[in-house]
Amino acid sequence: MNVSYKKLWKLIIDKEMTNVEVRKATGISPATFTKLKKNEVVSLDILLKLCKYLECDIGDIVEVVRDAN
């Protein structure tokens, strides 16, 4: 299984925010933001920071994607 943050990027666009604005406001490092862009696993703490700032639930920013197999 893999994770996808497509919902996160859509939510940021829908709220008319920029990635840099969100990153700076949440204190998330550029390296961690790059992990998000690459759909790599990040800590729950990072996801909770994003949820708090974006006023949403985890399911609004991340989804589990099953492998094609």
Tell me what the structure shows.
It is globular and about 40 Å long. It has four helices and two strands. It has helices spanning 6-14, 19-26, 30-37, 44-54; strands at 2-4, 63-65. Helix content is 52%, strand content 9%. The chain has one domain (2-65): lambda repressor-like DNA-binding domains (434 Repressor (Amino-terminal Domain), Orthogonal Bundle). The chain has 69 residues and is mainly α. A two-stranded antiparallel ribbon has the order 1-2.
Summarize the structure.
The protein has 69 residues and is mostly helical. 52% of the residues lie in helices and 9% in strands. The termini are close together.
Main traits of this protein?
69 residues, mainly alpha, two-stranded antiparallel ribbon, 4 helices, 2 strands
Oligomer: single chain
CATH superfamily: lambda repressor-like DNA-binding domains
Helix content: 40-55%
Poorly predicted runs of 5 or more residues: none
Which structural class should the secondary elements be placed in? mainly alpha
The amount of beta strand, in percent, is 5-15%
Mean pLDDT, all residues: 96
Instruction: Give the count of helical stretches.
Output: 4
- The coarse silhouette is globular
| SSE arrangement, N to C | EHHHHE
Terminal-residue CA separation:
10 Å
